[in-house]
Amino acid sequence: MLNESLSKSLNDQLNFELYSAHVYLAIAAYCSGESLDGFANFFMVQAEEEKFHAMKIYKFLNDRGQRVTMAGMDTPNNEYSSILDAFEHAYEHEIEVTRRIYHLSDLALNDREHATMQFLKWFVDEQVEEEAMFDSIINKLKRIDKDSNAFFMMDAEFALRSFTPPAL
Ligand SMILES: [Fe+2]
Ligand SMILES: [Fe+2]
């Protein structure tokens, strides 16, 4: 049985994962507006991943006999000065997600809630990948000119990104 405060914090994280999807859809819309369909696809796929993260927590809370509740959402940032600016925003967002996952892990550790600690380990590993991915794209974007062939090649490469949800 999860204690109430840990259960509420997991439910908050479920809602924050959905907010992350919202943040990435707003960035996708910015990219679409710039006619950069590959970058838009990259962020649409990212949004799908975030929804999958939310559903992982949804299932876990249900499995532990907890009642999930949905919350309202803040308006994400819809305007960016460049693709680099959008990726930097995404990277900052992932750093905030990591901070929240670590906080949740601390709560689970305090409660000696081993099943939740085990469950959160997947998210800890995922955040390492998320931060590394955005960091590496930002480094590349900083090196290329926004009207260069390399930039449009990146757009074409990101058009191929897809997401097949694994089992929850
Ligand atoms: Fe996530
Ligand atoms: Fe993420």
What does this protein structure show overall?
This protein is 74% helix and 0% strand. The chain has helices spanning 4-33, 37-63, 83-110, 114-143, 149-158. It has a single domain, classed as Up-down Bundle (Ferritin), CATH 1.20.1260. The radius of gyration is 17 Å and the shape is elongated. One fe (ii) ion (FE2) is lined by residues 17, 20, 50, 53, 97. One fe (ii) ion binds next to α3. Its EC number is 1.16.3.2. It is found in: Cytoplasm.
Shape: elongated
Q: On the 0-100 scale, what is the average pLDDT? A: 97
Name the CATH class.
Mainly Alpha
**Ligand set:** fe (ii) ion
Class from secondary-structure proportions:
mainly alpha
List how many beta strands DSSP finds.
0
CATH superfamily: Ferritin, core subunit, four-helix bundle
Largest sheet, in brief, is:
none
Helix content: over 70%
Q: In whole angstroms, how far apart are the ends? A: 21 Å
Assess the beta-strand content as a share of residues.
under 5%
How are helices and strands ordered from N to C? HHHHH
Instruction: Kindly identify the CATH topology.
Output: Ferritin
At CATH's second level, what is the architecture?
Answer: Up-down Bundle
Poorly predicted ranges: none
Domain count, please report it: 1
Number of helices: 5
